[in-house]
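Memo to structure team: turn this sequence into structure tokens by end of day. - J.P.
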Amino acid sequence: MEKLPKLDWKIGMDGLWCFSNVSLHTLTHATSDLGNWFNGKIGLYLEVLANPKINANLVPNRV
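Reply from structure team:
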């Protein structure tokens, strides 16, 4: 059985906080990867907008 991360609950000035044993480095790395992926997608989309072709389909048809 997979071991779940340990959660610690702390009561502070701003209310109830939950701290996991997931490191800040792990979260930062994951959000950086997501940001890089999203920026790449936006860059490709803007490139297509800047160089339009006849019958360009920016949103592919899904059947």
